[in-house]
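Quick note —
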Amino acid sequence: ALSIDGSGRVSSPQGLGMNHLLTDTISSAVAQYDIDSTYINSDYDSYEIEFVLRSSSDNDHLRNKVFVGGTLQTGNIYSWVTGSQGDTNVGASTQDGFRLNRFSVGNETGAFIGGRMRLQNVNSTSFPYMQTGQSVSYKYSDGAFTGTDFSGGLILANRADIVNGIRFYYGANIESGTIKVYGIK
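Predicted structure written out below.
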């Protein structure tokens, strides 16, 4: 049950809802950005991440990988699909990472890829980790604003992997950006 106090604020019972865990700003170029087990751990089975990340290079795609047991998973264990304005891009079921946008982005002033993603089955040993979300960006080829739906998961053989971190990266550096992480009860 929800409650509304005298000033109109809505609250949920203790332990339910989204709990803000992290806000971070990237103000100088980095090769990647990791969210480690300090934030993604057994406290929650689902997480929400908001991101706005700018590439240091033209014609680039935003990607991510997961950590299992504190180790970055670099093998071909990722499956993903993106769709944008009637156009679909499918990654085969054995990729080396997830892709979070359909069309490549440029690095001109104001260009970025931003969005929101949901992480699910983080602690499951029965169902594979999966992520879904939406991103927006400005296409490299013509600067047009585009929206992308994306989804992905670890391959079935990795269904028992407990995910305790993720890494965002471009082919080049992450020039700047912001990250927010929420745990979902």
